[in-house]
Automatic annotation (TrEMBL):
The keyword Hydrolase applies. The lineage of its organism: Bacteria, Bacillati, Actinomycetota, Actinomycetes, Kitasatosporales. Residues 19-245 form the Thioesterase TesA-like domain. It comes from Streptomyces parvulus. Belongs to the thioesterase family. Keywords: Hydrolase. InterPro entries: AB_hydrolase_fold (IPR029058), TEII (IPR012223), TesA-like (IPR020802), Thioesterase (IPR001031). This is Alpha/beta fold hydrolase. GO terms for molecular function: hydrolase activity. Pfam families: Thioesterase (PF00975).
């Protein structure tokens, strides 16, 4: 996989492929613990957005739809190289919207669509607007990051670290602020939504709003914790993803 967009942290197995999309300000390495916890026969691929880590010198996207388009363009030849391998998309927070838009783009092309979408920490775009983020300055972005948790608070007080992290965070929040639902047909792929029961960004009820965006089966999985519940329960999340992936693969 000769692309700057994707990272693997395990040896790919021969089973289904799972493509993971990071949260706002996040990088591919956020999913390294999950990749290590997933079933060995899966092929776990983590998306690396521009503007962070080894892609720091590249300008980050400030438009979420364009970001999804770039991911879809890079992912399509990867999928085409192994047309018989089923795949699923998993995204957390902003990553759930990027995964959803990527799935919509892939569904319009010649390749088979994903077997399942796993969407975490975010309500559906027609019911859970992100437009308010367009007004966020750096102070507001950092306040939101503090509110959501998931980041070592001491890092937020380190000006050197923040100087490195802010460009990607700033761009991601602008991308969220520019994004809006423009309508479209529901996806054929089943959808599983994951959410923390104490998430300050999305309620369990809001998580259920994704149901109208699929013609397949739909489920909501609720876990104890806040917005970044998944990083505290890696094994439990891995079990849900593995079961969903392997069940869909066996049923196909």
């Amino acid at each position: 996989m000769n692309s700057t967009w994707f990272r693997r942290y395990t040896t790919p197995g021969n089973g289904p492929r799972l493509v993971c999309f990071p949260h706002a300000g996040g990088s591919a390495t956020a999913y390294r613990p999950l990749a290590l916890a997933l079933a060995a026969d899966l092929d776990t691929v983590c998306v690396q957005y521009p503007g962070r880590q080894d892609r720091y010198s590249e300008a980050p996207f400030t438009d979420l739809t364009r970001l999804a388009g770039a991911v879809a363009e890079e992912l399509a030849p990867v999928l085409a190289a192994e047309p018989g391998r089923p795949y699923a998309l998993f995204g957390h927070s902003m990553g759930s919207l990027v995964a959803f838009e990527t799935a919509r783009l892939l569904a319009r092309g010649p390749l088979p669509g994903p077997r399942r979408l796993f969407l975490s920490g975010r309500g559906a775009p027609d019911a859970h607007s992100t437009a308010g983020f367009a007004r966020y300055d750096d102070k507001a972005v950092l306040a939101e990051v503090r509110r959501l948790g998931g980041t070592d608070q001491s890092m937020l007080d380190d000006p050197d670290i923040m100087e490195m992290a802010l460009p990607a965070l700033r761009a991601d929040y602008r991308a969220l602020g520019s994004y809006g639902w423009r309508g479209g047909e529901p996806l054929a792929a089943p959808v599983t939504v994951l959410v923390g029961d104490g998430d300050p960004m999305v309620t369990v009820e809001q998580a259920g709003t994704w149901a109208t965006h699929t013609r397949g089966d739909f489920a909501v999985k609720v876990f104890p914790g806040g917005h970044f519940y998944l990083f505290d329960q890696v094994d439990e999340i891995a079990a849900v993803l593995t079961e969903g992936l392997l069940t869909e693969s066996a049923a196909a």
